[in-house]
Design a protein that fits this description.
By secondary structure, this protein is of the alpha+beta class. 22% of the residues lie in helices and 29% in strands. The protein is elongated and about 75 Å long.
Length: 252
């Protein structure tokens, strides 16, 4: 069940605020009856009319996509670059949940459910994301501790604590493979975090989002999330769920 004004907005008739005005003005009917209550909820089979015209309710879809490098995380691009929505079947008007940089690869979610997207991206819900970065200039022990406790970015923003693990080091090339788990998603955050401690990200991949991983997918591929997975992701946004349980992989 969804709020009536949300259904009208998702159908592209008007913004949610304008939809509320339409409801109050008596311009909306549900199953043939005028509805003026803003709290009214409707199901997918409810017949909704605005100014006598029936609107089509779009069924929610949820995809996990293995984003390749060279795609932008948006619905369209004024520079003509490839967009992540090109990777999933046409039909539903999906959009990316958060963003991955143009050259960053890995797990990204696509959906047409705005409420779900907000739950997955708002910092207060603390959904963990695991990244693996290849960096130039091997981070020192002190740099790792700074990343773990939070660093100040170039715009003055102080990041929250991160989980950091050094996976491998190539002393000859002065490079390292570092795993980083954060629950935020500011613009280019991982790259900027490493820059703040004197390292440069050469390659970056997001390998996990909550309990979701890229298992079974190769670059450019996608799969649809099950109802159980969507429900579990919603549960992860529940502040009563202990943080240590939010990034656990789903048992098969």
């Amino acid at each position: 069940m969804e709020r009536l004004q949300k259904v009208i907005a998702q159908a592209g008739v008007a913004s949610r605020r304008k939809a509320e005005e339409m409801i109050l003005d008596g311009r909306v009917r549900v199953n043939g009856k005028v509805v003026r209550e803003l709290g009214t909820k409707v199901g997918p089979k409810s017949e909704v009319e605005v100014d006598g015209v029936k609107i089509e309710q779009e069924e929610h879809v949820y995809y996990v996509v293995y984003k390749p490098s060279g795609y932008v995380s948006t619905v369209d691009d004024d520079k003509g670059r490839k967009v992540v929505t090109d990777l999933v079947p046409p039909g539903s008007r999906v959009f990316p949940v958060g963003r991955l940089d143009y050259n960053t690869t890995g797990l990204i979610l696509l959906t047409n459910d705005g409420e779900f997207s907000n739950l997955m991206t708002h910092p207060k819900f603390k959904i963990p994301k695991r990244y693996v970065a290849k960096v130039k200039n091997v981070p020192s022990y002190i740099a790792i501790k700074e990343l773990e406790s939070g660093v100040k970015l170039d715009d003055g923003f102080k990041t929250g604590g991160a989980k950091v693990r050094m996976k491998s080091v190539d002393h000859k090339k002065n490079t390292a493979i570092v795993e980083l788990v954060i629950s935020e998603g500011h613009n280019r955050q991982v790259r900027r975090m490493f820059e703040a401690v004197g390292s440069e990200v050469i390659k970056l991949k997001r390998e996990q989002f909550g309990f979701l991983t890229l298992d079974g997918l190769t670059t450019g591929e996608w799969r649809e999330l099950s109802r159980k997975e969507v429900s579990k992701l919603r549960e992860l946004a529940n502040p009563t769920v202990p943080l240590e349980k939010r990034g656990k992989k789903k048992k098969k």
